[in-house]
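A.,

Following up on our hallway conversation. C-alpha cells first:
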C-alpha cells in the first residue's frame, strides 16, 4: 500500500480514519474523495490539513469520470470506502440517494478498480445488514435481512463487493461495524443530536418506549479495527466489528443528561421509527481469533469524553444546525414532538 483513497473521508468515521492513518503511517499517501453532502465537513479534516501525506478531492463516487481521474492522478493502489448516505431516518423519508451512493456508487468504485488494476478494496459496512436479533449475536455467515432502505442499500453494496471478489478476484474485505459514537459526528445521529439538544435545554425525542438496544462502539476502536483488516484481512472475507457495549436507548439518553447535569424531563417519548430494529448485537469472535482484536474503550468514560467534546466545541456543531438541517428537523420531529406523551 502506498496511495490509499479514502472515500467519504470528510464524514464522521471516515475523517477519524484519515486523521488516524495520516499520523500512524507517514509513509502512506492518504487521498480523500468526498462529495461533500450535508454530512461532509472540511472542519473534520482541519487537524491534517497541512500534513504532506494528505490530499483532498471533492467528487462523487457514483461519477465514473471523476473516480477514474482521481485513481489515475493519485496512482491509487488501495481504496477504503466510507462514502455513503448513512442516516436511517433520512432513508425512510427519501431512499433515492441511498440507492445511488450506497449501491451504484460502490459499483462504480469496484468497476474502476477492475478497469484500472487497483488491487485492494476495503468496504465499510454496517451491522444493520443483518436486521434485528431478539437474543444471541450475529455471526458473519448469517443471512442478511435488512429492514430500512439504508440497510438494504448497504446490503446491496456489500453483495456487489462480494461479486467482484468471486468473479474478478479483486482483493476485497468488508467490515460490519456497530453503532459508532465520538467527536465530529453530525448532530442527526442520536448521541450528538441528544447531546447538542440537551445543551440548549430542548426536548429529546426518544422513539417508542426507548427500550431498543444498540451496541456502542467508540470511533477510535472502529478505525483501529478497519486498519487491522486493511493490513491483515483475507481476500473475500467479512469481519464484524462490535463495541461489546449493549445499551437500551433510554439508558444512553439518561447518561447523556446526567453528564450534562440536565433534567430527565427533557425526554419526550414520540412516535416510533417505522420498521425500527429492536436490537443489534454481533460477535467479534472472528476478529479476536484471527487478529486478537477487541474494542479497548470503556463505554461510560468514552461517552462522557464525547459529551465534553461537544460542550467545548460549539464552534463545530452550532453552524451545522441551520438551513437544510432545520428543514429536516421539522419534517422528522415537528409533528412527533407536537403529539409527544
Ligand atoms: P457520515 O454520514 O458522517 O459521512 C458520510 C460521508 O460520505 C460524508 O462526508 C459525505 O459527504 C460522503 N458522501 C456521501 N455520498 C457520497 C458520494 N456519492 N460520493 C462521495 N462521498 C459521499 O457517515 P459515517 O457515520 O461516518 O459512516 C461512514 C461509513 O460507515 C458509512 O458507509 C456507514 O454506512 C458506515 N457505518 C456507520 C456507522 C455509524 O454508526 N455511524 C456504523 C457502521 C458503519
Ligand atoms: O448500527 C450501525 C448503524 O448505526 C450505522 O450503520 C448507521 O449509519 C448509523 O446511523 C446507526 O444507525 P441507527 O439507526 O442505530 O442510529 P441512530 O443514531 O439514528 O439511532 C440510534 C437509536 O436511537 C435507534 O434505536 C433510534 C433511536 N433514536 C434515534 C434518533 C435520531 C431515537 O430514539 N430518537 C432520535 O431522534
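Then the amino acids I'd put at each of the 341 positions:
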Amino acid at each position: 500500500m502506498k496511495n490509499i483513497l479514502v472515500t467519504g473521508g470528510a464524514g464522521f468515521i471516515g475523517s477519524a480514519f484519515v486523521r488516524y492513518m495520516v499520523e500512524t503511517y507517514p509513509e502512506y499517501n492518504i487521498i480523500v474523495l468526498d462529495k461533500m453532502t450535508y454530512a461532509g465537513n472540511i472542519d473534520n479534516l482541519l487537524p491534517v490539513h497541512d500534513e504532506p501525506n494528505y490530499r483532498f478531492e471533492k467528487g462523487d463516487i457514483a461519477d465514473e469520470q471523476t473516480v477514474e481521474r482521481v485513481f489515475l492522478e493519485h496512482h491509487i493502489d488501495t481504496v477504503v470506502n466510507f462514502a455513503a448516505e448513512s442516516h436511517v431516518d433520512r432513508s425512510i423519508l427519501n431512499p433515492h440517494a441511498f440507492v445511488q451512493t450506497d449501491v451504484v456508487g460502490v459499483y462504480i468504485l469496484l468497476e474502476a478498480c477492475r478497469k484500472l488494476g487497483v488491487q485492494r478494496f476495503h468496504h465499510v459496512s454496517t451491522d444493520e445488514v443483518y436486521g434485528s436479533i431478539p437474543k444471541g449475536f450475529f455471526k458473519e455467515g448469517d443471512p442478511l435481512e435488512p429492514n430500512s432502505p439504508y440497510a438494504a442499500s448497504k446490503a446491496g453494496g456489500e453483495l456487489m463487493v462480494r461479486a467482484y471478489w468471486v468473479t474478478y478476484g479483486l482483493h476485497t474485505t468488508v467490515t460490519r461495524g456497530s453503532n459508532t459514537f465520538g467527536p465530529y459526528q453530525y448532530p442527526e445521529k442520536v448521541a450528538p443530536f441528544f447531546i447538542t439538544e440537551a445543551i440548549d435545554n430542548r426536548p429529546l425525542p426518544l422513539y417508542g418506549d426507548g427500550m431498543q438496544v444498540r451496541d456502542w462502539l467508540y470511533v477510535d476502536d472502529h478505525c483501529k479495527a478497519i486498519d487491522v483488516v486493511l493490513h491483515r484481512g483475507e481476500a473475500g472475507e467479512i469481519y464484524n466489528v462490535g463495541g461489546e457495549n449493549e445499551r437500551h436507548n433510554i439508558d444512553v439518553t439518561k447518561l447523556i443528561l446526567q453528564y450534562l447535569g440536565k433534567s430527565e424531563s427533557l425526554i419526550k417519548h414520540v412516535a416510533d421509527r417505522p420498521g425500527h430494529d429492536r436490537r443489534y448485537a454481533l460477535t467479534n469472535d472472528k476478529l479476536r481469533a484471527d487478529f486478537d482484536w477487541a474494542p479497548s474503550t470503556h463505554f461510560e468514560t468514552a461517552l462522557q469524553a464525547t459529551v465534553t467534546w461537544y460542550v467545548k466545541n460549539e464552534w463545530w456543531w452550532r453552524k451545522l444546525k441551520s438551513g437544510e438541517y432545520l428543514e429536516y428537523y421539522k419534517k422528522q420531529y415537528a409533528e412527533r414532538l407536537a403529539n409527544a406523551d
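The chain is about 45% helix and 15% strand. Curious whether your intuition agrees with the design.

B.
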